[in-house]
C-alpha cells in the first residue's frame, strides 16, 4: 500500500512538471503557428537564387559544348 502512495506522488509530480513545461512553452509562442509549416511544403513560391559564380561556369561550359557541336556539324 505504501508503494501505491509513492507511485501516485511520483505520477502527480511528473504531470505537474509537464504542465509547467507546457505553460512556459505556450507563453514563449512555441505553439502559435501550427498550420504554416504544413502548408509551406505544398507551395513552391520560394525563388531559388543561384550563385553567380556557378552560373558563369555553367554558361561557359554550355558555350563550349555549343561550339563543339557547331564544329562537328
What is the first-to-last residue Cα distance? 94 Å
Count of helical stretches: 3
Largest sheet: none
Which outline best applies?
rod-shaped
Which segments are poorly predicted (pLDDT under 50) over 5 or more consecutive residues? none
Q: Give, in order, the helices and strands.
A: HHH
Instruction: Count the beta strands.
Output: 0
Radius of gyration: 30 Å
**Mean of all residue-level pLDDT scores:** 78
Structural class: mainly alpha
Our estimate of the beta-strand percent is under 5%
Share of helical residues: over 70%
What does this protein look like?
This protein has 73 residues and is mainly α. The chain contains 3 helices and no strands. The longest helix is centred in the N-terminal third of the chain and has 26 residues, at 2-27.
Looking at this protein, list some descriptive labels.
73 residues; 3 helices
Write the layout of secondary structure elements.
Elements: H1 2-27, H2 36-42, H3 52-72
Describe, in short, the structure shown.
The protein is mainly alpha-helical.
Amino acid at each position: 500500500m505504501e508503494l501505491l502512495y509513492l507511485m501516485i506522488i511520483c505520477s502527480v509530480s511528473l504531470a505537474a512538471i509537464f504542465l509547467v513545461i507546457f505553460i512556459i512553452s505556450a507563453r514563449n509562442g512555441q505553439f502559435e503557428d501550427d498550420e504554416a509549416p504544413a502548408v509551406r511544403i505544398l507551395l513552391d513560391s520560394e525563388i531559388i537564387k543561384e550563385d553567380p559564380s556557378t552560373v558563369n561556369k555553367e554558361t561557359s561550359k554550355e558555350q563550349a559544348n555549343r561550339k563543339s557541336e557547331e564544329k562537328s556539324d
